[in-house]
Amino acid sequence: MNLQETVLIQLRDLILRGEFAPGQRLAEQQLAERLGASRTPVRAALVALEQEGLVEANETGKYLVRRFTPREVADAIAVRGHLEGMAARLVAEHGVSRQLQLDLEACLEEGDRLLAADPLAYDNYAGYAAMNDRFHALILEASGNRALQRAIALNNALPFAPASAMLPMQSTLQQDRDWMLYAHRQHHMLFDALRRGEGARAQALAVEHTEVAQMNLRLALDRRSETERVMPAIRLVVGR
Does domain 3-65 have CATH number 1.10.10.10? Predict the structure, then answer.
């Protein structure tokens, strides 16, 4: 996990937690000081977050937190589930190549290793997010459907739509740990369906897999509401 990826995950986490108000400017120097990094990885992370739809650049090129609603996030996650379900079905029907099997198995083994310790420890969390992105990307690439790949890339530009954007945020909650373990069990089941050529099952598992992201969204919003009741001065980043 390099510094740029680490900063990206930290900034994405802060936005979801409501640390920045909608429309608030994200100053590179202040973020660098807060995260203990130089401005270069912060700038790269902001560019990535703009592509994910979490921030937007104004007419002067400064980055602002984008306004969006919980419904927009939920809809984007739902669309990703159906698109990835189609990709999984195509892979299962086409057959899993030896190289794809090895690559997916490597992802599963990496996920098992990271989750065997404390999955919410920062290094493990960041490593799992990178593995999760690779697992999803391998299946999409193996689908061979360029139109489908473009559709997912377009959907990923919406707030919190990418595969790892709605993983449980770092905390000490046992519930977050349980959700991560459950999500990785789904990875194993999906791989099994792909390897067996079970297209319908693979598609259903891929769609069901995004329910973890939907649940994490609901949990995050619940926690935000609780924080707002305790500290009313804190504003939610998601629009009401």
Answer: yes
